[in-house]
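User: If only I could read backbone structure tokens as easily as an amino acid sequence. Underneath my words sits a plain record pairing an amino acid chain with its backbone structure tokens. This is the protein in question:
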Amino acid sequence: MGLTEEQITHCKSIFSQFDKDGTGRIDRFELRVVLEQMGQKPSEEELFAMINEVDDGNTGKIEFYEFLKVYEQHQNSEVNRDEQDMIDAFVAMGGNPDTTGSIDTDKLINVIRQQFEMTIDIERLIEDIDEDQSHTIEYAEFKRLLS
């Protein structure tokens, strides 16, 4: 995936706030705070796994280039987790785990109205999303609907 220049600059800015002595390193406790300031909330297990994976010198401290690896890995795991949640919802509605298959639009409308008691104009949304007018929602369409 790779980080954008904007993300790298943002990382450097926050990392520098915690590198008080200017060594270019932070410890695992500071790493947690840095990640939290950047909107990420890794579990204790995730934090230790991140450090073990990138701490090339086994110092227990993270250098900036190692921090960038941690940040990118966590970003990717968040994306993967979100994608899996979307696939799980697709499967629950009748699609297949490999994202093939489709969801019947009537079933989707019923779930949104009856189970979630939403009052949005779901028919119009589905009409806009169901590009092939098949009256079924394929995974790509489902993903757009939820985005």
